[in-house]
Write a structure and sequence with these properties.
By secondary structure, the protein is of the alpha+beta class. It contains 16 helices and 9 strands. A 3-stranded antiparallel beta sheet has the order 1-2-3, with no helix packed on it. Strands 4-5-6 form a 3-stranded antiparallel beta sheet, with no helix packed on it. A 3-stranded mixed beta sheet has the order 7-9-8, sandwiched between helices. Helix 4 packs parallel to helix 10 and helix 7 crosses helix 12. It is rod-shaped.
């Protein structure tokens, strides 16, 4: 069967469409389309409207009148001609692809800025401890190469630390370096680096115990690993998933300054304080060491040597007040003569 195209005139009648056209032989013909059997073709556009008569699939009308939809709505308010094809028209339009592209790019951007850091931090919190310790050991070798280690103080402080039960399964390893800054920081896996400048300002064993307990708490809760993983999420995400120690160490090593000067949030500092105070209490060590340590940092807050410590471990009024309150309430201070002897052996002045 062959179909032919004819110019036609469409007349909108109350209950049907009347279509007049002239055949190739010159004979005038007409077709009557009942409204209920008229269906819009899903391939219509904003400049070409296509209709088919359902009982006669070869009968098709193509109309380029842009005001046709408005005319149909006015003539037949109860008939929805474009109900089925409206969504299809949108799916095939340029607007749909623009919106789709924007949505995809927006989703990728959101995942990059928020999703990757979040998931990297979550993965970091669940990696095995021995894996984290390997990361910390490798990272320590790279970081410590930039400092001059004080072997005598390192030996003495580690001996001091062995007298304290830090209530953690991490191997606590302290290194004292010669640096004209009052600072200390913890690496993933158990390494703690203490600058000799902060030791010089201490007057009691309790201050050193408080400092070490606080840094060990950061290790125990994996604060440094989580914080760095969140900051470097896009770089560490794949390495964490694949368990690539060398890849993780390489990324962390390239950003070692971030670890050294890592600034913890108030929530993390409070969590570390709480854990450290519990450690001192369980060992019968006076919590006045925390109060004195905070006073030391406050008194030297204007010195360049103390700014690093205060910037990486923000000292707030709430932390100081909490330390004083806990110290006043403490009742289990024990005999610390052995710890005192180890403190005196350090020869800190």
């Amino acid at each position: 069967m062959t179909s032919f195209a004819h110019d036609a005139t469409l007349t909108l009648m109350p209950d049907h469409w009347l279509i007049h056209y002239t055949e190739q032989s010159g004979v005038m013909q007409y077709a009557r389309w009942e409204l209920a059997r008229i269906a819009a073709d899903p391939n219509f556009t904003s400049t070409l409207f296509i209709f088919r008569y359902t009982d006669f699939h070869l009968q098709t009308i193509e109309c380029k009148e842009e005001d046709l939809p408005e005319l149909l709505r006015g003539k037949y308010p109860s008939v929805v001609f474009f109900k089925k094809q409206g969504l299809g028209r949108f799916w095939g339009s340029n607007a749909f692809f623009v919106i789709l592209l924007i949505t995809i790019l927006g989703s990728l951007a959101c995942f990059y800025w928020y999703g990757l850091p979040y998931f990297s931090q979550k993965i970091a919190s669940r990696i095995p401890q021995d894996f984290e310790t390997k990361i910390g050991d490798s990272l320590y070798e790279r970081v410590i190469a930039g400092y001059k280690v004080d072997e005598k103080l390192t030996s003495g402080v580690n001996d001091f630390a062995k007298s304290i039960d830090f209530k953690t399964t991490y191997p606590v390893k302290v290194t004292v370096v010669k640096e004209d800054q009052a600072n200390a920081f913890a690496l993933p896996g158990g390494h703690i680096v203490v600058f000799d400048k902060i030791l010089e300002g201490m007057r009691t064993k309790e201050e050193l115990a408080a400092l070490l307990a606080h840094e060990v708490a950061h290790v125990h809760y994996r604060h440094s690993l989580k914080s760095v993983s969140r900051s470097l999420g896009s770089y560490l995400f794949i390495s964490l998933i694949l368990g690539d120690v060398s890849g993780i160490v390489a990324v962390l090593a390239e950003n070692s300054n971030m670890l050294i000067n890592l600034t913890y949030s108030r929530e993390l500092e409070t969590e570390a304080d709480r854990k450290a105070m519990e450690t001192l209490e369980s060992n019968g060590i006076s919590l006045k060491g925390f109060v004195d340590l905070f006073k030391l940092l406050e008194s030297h807050g204007g010195d360049s040597g103390s700014v690093e410590m205060l910037s990486s471990h923000p000292l707030t009024g709430e932390r100081i007040a909490n330390a004083k309150a806990r110290a006043r309430e403490q009742t289990n201070i024990g005999d610390q003569s052995a710890l005192q002897q180890k403190w005196l052996k350090l020869g800190v002045k």
